[in-house]
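2024-03-11 09:14:02 DEBUG pipeline.ingest accepted 1 chain
2024-03-11 09:14:02 DEBUG pipeline.ingest length=84
2024-03-11 09:14:03 DEBUG pipeline.predict start
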Amino acid sequence: MINRTQVWAAILSAIALFAGPSPAADDPAVLKDLTAVIALQGQPCGQVVSAAKQGDNDYVAACQDGSRYHVFVNAQGRVVVQKQ
């Protein structure tokens, strides 16, 4: 059975692959996915209102409540959410 972290790693990979040149802040689907990833990691956020793409599978997300998180996939393929 595939765990949630692996599923979200695949989703973030697909987002990075298909997002193309448009910035993450302009794509509501990316914001929604980042909101879900942060919530699944048990971090308070509410809703992601903007995001800056730092690289492949690497985002800095700003939440509605003022929190900021670094969301990325580590070398082991796991999704990591770090409060900024």
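2024-03-11 09:14:41 DEBUG pipeline.report The chain has one domain: 4-83.
2024-03-11 09:14:41 DEBUG pipeline.predict end
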